[in-house]
Amino acid sequence: MASDYTRFQTEDFVLDDSFRAYVAGSDAAAVQFWQGWLAAHPAQRTAAEQARQLVLVLAQARQPAAPAQHKAEDLQRLQRAIRKPAVAPMLRTQGRRRSRLVASLLLFLLALGTGYGLWTKRTLLQPQTEYTATAGQPRTVQLPDGSVVVLNGGSRLTTATAWDSDAPREVWLEGEAYFQVSHLASAANVAFAQATGNAKFVVHVGELNVSVLGTKFNVINRPGVLNKVTLNAGKVLVEHPRLLGHDEQLMKPGDLVEYAPAEHNLVTRVVKPAYYSAWVKGSVQFDHTPLTEIIQLLRDTYGLRVTVDDPAMLRQTITGSLPNANADVLLSALAKSLGVRSERSGQQVRFRTLR
């Protein structure tokens, strides 16, 4: 990995191979590196998030079955569009020049025909407010419209600093959050398509857009791994925009919609939604949940790095309710449920078989 990422700006991240692999979830080592690096360098998160959105835009703009030659040509065109001069004099106009480079990149992406371009451009140009929850410490946030968001540990929510009454309310989530959205629609039963102004509330979750008018739901966004939306009450529209059309699912209470980047499709099943929002009240509910998914939760929520000494453990599942207010208590309960021993040193955890 390079050692000068602290000097990177938006376009530098976009052109970095390892960063693009992290966004795509195609390289486990890159995903692990960038998650750790961004957690350790909060000053770079804004530029990295802008770059992540641009990389997603570029990925959506390409045909899924494009030959390798076409992908290489796309990247070469992207590099030509935003390449910096070999010698960059320190002038007062340098900031404006960099802004023009980013603007050129946006125009390039829009020329590729993707529907994401417009809202991405608006996001890059608007002042933003960021809310974060530290590892193992949920945080409750009240938004300007009165909506309440509970962020799980290790999660981040980004919004425009000022919301326009003539535009949808939009937020961007990394991690997990439980939303209680205020209903601003003029009519109680207005359809999503007829919602105007700020009646619609949209959560951008990786490659998905989750639209509501006013309801309660839980969202999980694990970059490069999976996205889950669970509906407790009301209606939710989940959309996955594509270059040609888009997939969508109108959820009803009790539905869970899951999207895995590797599968490129929405999967819906009926669940007990209280299981997925139980963490808000101090516990976690598992329903035949595989250990691999629980390890991901421990990493994203508590910042723990978990390994096992027997790969067979990864095939085990857990069903039941466990306390989550304290990471050590949760680890102890997990070990007991799995019939193993947990050993922790700092943020490193190892599950060992009982001998």
UniProtKB/TrEMBL annotation:
Keywords: Membrane, Transmembrane, Transmembrane helix. It comes from the Bacteria. The keyword Membrane applies. Residues 285-349 form the Protein FecR C-terminal domain. The chain crosses the membrane at residues 101-119. Pfam families: FecR (PF04773), FecR_C (PF16344). Residues 131-236 form the FecR protein domain. The keyword Transmembrane applies. Coiled coil: none annotated. PANTHER family: PERIPLASMIC SIGNAL SENSOR AND SIGMA FACTOR ACTIVATOR FECR-RELATED, PROTEIN FECR. This is FecR domain-containing protein. It comes from Hymenobacter negativus. The lineage of its organism: Bacteria, Pseudomonadati, Bacteroidota, Cytophagia, Cytophagales.
